Amino acid sequence: MKIVIAGTGYVGLVTGVVLANTGHNVTCVDVDQKKIDLMNSGKSPIYEEGLEELMVKNKERLNYTTDYKNAYKNAEVIFIGVATPEHVDGSANLDYVYEVVKQIAENLENDCIVVIKSTVPIGTNDEIEKYLKEHVKENIQISIVSNPEFLAQGTAVKDTLYASRIVVGTEDERAKEIMRELYEPLTKEPYNVPYISMNRKSAEMVKYASNDFLALKISYINEIANFCEKVGANIEDVTKGMGYDPRIGNKFLKAGIGYGGSCFPKDTKALHWLSRKFEAELKTVRACIEVNKLQKIRMYTKLKNDFKSLNGENVAVLGLTFKAGTDDMREAPSIDNIELLLDAGANVHAYDPIGIEKFKTAIANRIPDETVQKRIQYFDNIDATIKDCVAVMIMTEWPEIVNYDIKNFKKLMKTVAIYDGRNCYSLEEIKKENVKYESIGR
Ligand code: UGA
Prior knowledge:
This protein has 442 residues and is α/β, with parallel strands linked by helices. The protein is built from 20 helices and 14 strands. The protein has helices spanning 10-21, 33-40, 51-57, 68-73, 95-107, 124-135, 156-161, 173-187, 200-231, 235-243, 264-277, 283-296, 298-306, 333-343, 356-366, 370-373, 382-386, 399-402, 407-412, 427-433; strands spanning 2-6, 25-29, 62-65, 77-80, 112-116, 142-146, 166-169, 195-198, 314-318, 347-351, 376-379, 391-394, 417-420, 436-438. The protein has a six-stranded parallel sheet with strand order 3-2-1-4-5-6, with helices on both faces. Strands 11-10-9-12-13-14 form a six-stranded parallel sheet. The radius of gyration is 24 Å and the shape is elongated. The termini are far apart. Bound molecules: uridine-5'-diphosphate-glucuronic acid (UGA). Uridine-5'-diphosphate-glucuronic acid binds at residues 119, 149-153, 211, 214, 218, 252-254, 256, 259-261, 263-264, 322-323.
């Protein structure tokens, strides 16, 4: 099958590489020539375990190009996997999707199935179909299929090969057959991925409902954790006790500093926005968003309460990425917390094993003033980061941070005050050190 993938971010590139690995010929299209050159040299533009190995292994079946005209011309199946960021009002911005749709309409010369993998509001597939049917050359048969993606960053390859499910939304019989055939290798041994067919709007909804449910689970457990602090319970014991109930499950119950990343924040806002548009506000989703906003800065709130002034003091921040295992900085709680620290006059010592470069770009976008940016110093090891600091905030659960010898805090810091937003250390161990320690829900 001649498959083309539009967009080489996490969703597009991983999908393309995995489909090539199952035997398809795949052309990956992107507007960014630098990225294309990098991929043509066998390198991945994103940090994702196992991805480069699969790119090398399947290089005969993979093409990377900016030449969308040629790529779309004779494609049998085109996947759209470009970003759908948020507008300021929370609604989904579909500009990149429509840019690709327009290019497809202008260049397509054969019958084709257009598969929407990008996360798009319910009803978007219908609109895309209407646009394409009106704009493709005469006599071209076109079908639109919704095929949402469920991979998580850091485990993207595994999540695609051994996916929890493949959801395919289409009412078109020919498209149904082709999609079945395309995904057949993944539905068999050794992958055995469940394959679920439904109508397009339901498939679009599965994506939002899944992400928002997971985000809600996190906000719920974070709120319970905050309440545990008030009443003297321990969230880790509480979640252990809850997780044994198979109806609840033990996944996604880790209390922390709220969800970040490129998906949950935008997908909760987009679904909430859509529900209001339909005058059917999703109140649970609204609550989830509100809880998360406060949770992201909970560590700073605690720290600020403990210090009369932070002016001129050094504060260490361990971990910058929104979670471990990725260099992605989108909606990372570290950005909000560091901005608040700088506002309060503190100097920041920042550490992250792989995210520093992307963090520099993210913070420059947030705080354009270079004199303020210069008050952040970057370090490549934890010892140097915490040296002479009055407090340390833990923002990401990197193994280097979780396994750090807690005795060093006392040895190296000016005063020891630890604000652990990821519950990295055991309370027993910390007690032995007799230091000021705040975590979540314990
Ligand atoms: C998420 C979903 O997990 C994927 O299924 C989905 O396909 C993806 O969004 C997407 O829509 O593209 P991702 O954003 O990569 O994946 O990251 P997650 O591992 O889900 O974590 C999201 C945030 O929740 C992180 O900030 C993480 O630290 C936080 N989290 C997660 C918790 O605070 N507690 C938990 O128990 C789990």
